[in-house]
Amino acid sequence: MTPIRGALILAAVLAVLTGLYRYADIEATGAARFASALTALRLHDAELNRDLLRLHAGDLLHYDSVNAAVEAIEKDLRSLSDHAGPLRPQVAALARLARHKAILLERFKSAHALVRNSLAYFLHLQETLSADHPAVPSLGAAMLRFVRRPAQKNRRTLEELLARLPAREPFTPLRNHTRLLLRLLPKQQRLLGELLNTPLGATATRLAVVHEAALARLQRRADGFRLALYMAAAVFFVQLTLALIRLQRANRRLRQEMRQRLEAERQLLQAQKMEALGSFASGIAHDFNNLLAGVRGYLVLAREQLAAGERPEGALERIDTIVGRGQEMIQRLLQFARPRSDRSVQFDPSQVVEEALGFVRPTLPKAVSLRFANRLPEDRRVRGRPGEWQQVVVNLVRNAADAVGNQGHIEVLLDEAENGVRLRVRDDGGGIEPERLATLFDPFASGKPVGLGTGLGLTIVRRIVEGHGGRIEVDSQPGQGTCFTVNFPGTPLQR
Questions:
Q1: Mean of the pLDDT values across residues 91-110?
Q2: CB-based contacts of 440: which residues, under 8 Å, 6+ apart?
Q3: Could you say which of 390, 404, 429, 434 would form a disulfide bridge with 356 (CB–CB 3.0 to 4.6 Å)?
Q4: Residue 286: which domain range?
Q5: Kind of pairing between the strands at 420-427 and 482-489
Q6: CA torsion sign, 130 to 133 to 136 to 138?
Q7: Looking at the predicted structure, is the pLDDT value of residue 127 above 90?
Q8: Whole-number Å distance between alpha carbons of 238 and 241
Q9: Which residues contact 290 (CB under 8 A, 6 or more apart)?
Q10: Contact criterion met (CB below 8 Å) for 399 and 459
Q11: With contact defined as beta carbons under 8 Å apart, do 280 and 359 qualify?
């Protein structure tokens, strides 16, 4: 046998063993998911039974957790069906039990709601009429005993007291609700018993025992294929070594490509900043014209005061104040235009947001109001890149300004979130169509007319937010405005 033929045979053996092992491993993986879904179903069924008892006892005042448990059971059944294999008939029987329990649950919820409402009316009427007839207080006490235990003895007592009540107003509503509760409470008790006795969890437990045995067989078969595969793989040690060398070379190329991509992203962020600065130019120029007009006016006043032999200290102080404002505007522009730094620092998020709004405010139309509500403590600090935070604020506010047009309201809110800091930018513009929401953050998915947007603003915002470990969400309805919510994570060191 030539070396080439031997290598080909070994390669064929390795391929067959690999295929068998992968098939066995896939089966084992599906079986493991089946077992996990069974465990989850038993847990959710137990939670459902617990919440039903809490509802009956009055400890639970709504059906949210009950509905959530039913939805979880349905999800577990779908997962079981996806990985049932030869156990599909047993899974179908389990699904029938779940459907039966769901039907009983709807009947129980209807009865429970009627009982709860009727009992509330009964207690109110009993308290109101307790002084009008001596049987009313006793009727209330008997009803409470019947609610706790709708036994025949308590029922007879309640019926006897009901017979003593006059069949006239104002006792008629009290009599009606008493009869309704006499009819509904046993029905509710019966439905609760049927729900708790539905053997959904027990059937799932029996199925789990059968499945565990099948899973053990699959695991033993997968282990056998794994051992044979390892033995065959040893023959190809040299080839694997060569493959490792090739992987190392590919890894170096990948790191180089990643560095190039990061550099391209930095350039994109900087270019987007420059685009924003260009849009700020008209507003900044208008503000500078106003400042220069003020300086000119106070210079004229100073000359007149000097000509009259007066000291122009007031005019000079005004000029100094105006020049200081101009320097602040230039400083903010330079800070915004500064290239991003990859180094995270601790900073005051309120100050960063206020500075970003200072860039945008001069560019807004006069009929557009921009309000900032800061609900963070004064000493609140976060860790991140302040320049990128400003870029997020600027992009979101500019989008809001585009949405409201020449007249509207924009609100920026900054407050504490559950695990960090939350920034919200809300406008009362025309909103976003539902079909656009799914692709809103995709590159070049601009909703503006051609030539008025690059389609990269929200893409950059999402990358910055995710780069800080946060997330961004949008809530919008056509004609009702839009709200972007950005959650930045916090750590104990950020206080």
A1: 88
A2: 432, 458, 474
A3: 390
A4: 261-328
A5: antiparallel
A6: positive
A7: no
A8: 5
A9: none
A10: no
A11: yes
pLDDT, tens digit (0-9, with 9 covering 90-100), for 188-230: 888 888 888 888 888 888 888 887 777 777 677 766 756 666 6
Spatial contact of 44 and 73, defined as CB atoms under 8 Å apart = yes
Q: What are the tokens at 113?
A: 């709601």
Q: Are residues 46 and 18 in the same domain?
A: yes
Q: And the tokens for 206?
A: 């029996």
Does some domain include residue 427? yes
82 and 125 co-located in one domain: yes
Q: CA 273 to CA 283: how far, in whole Å? A: 16
- d(C-alpha 247, C-alpha 108), whole Å: 62
421 has a pLDDT exceeding 70: yes
Residues facing 382 on adjacent strands: 347
Task: Return the structure tokens found at 380.
Answer: 């609140």
Please state the pTM of the whole predicted model.
0.39
Measured CA to CA, the distance from residue 491 to residue 100 in angstroms comes to 48
* Residue 162 CB neighbours (<10 A): 18
- Do 347 and 298 lie in one domain? The reply is no
CATH number, domain containing residue 411: 3.30.565.10
Tokens 């929200």 label which residue? 458
Residue of 430, 434, 440 lying closest to 482 (CA atoms)? 430
What does the buried/exposed string (b/e) look like for 380-409 if buried means 16 or more CB atoms within 10 Å of the residue's CB?
A: bbbbbbbbbbbbbbbbbbbbbbbbbeeebb
Number of domains the chain is built from: 3
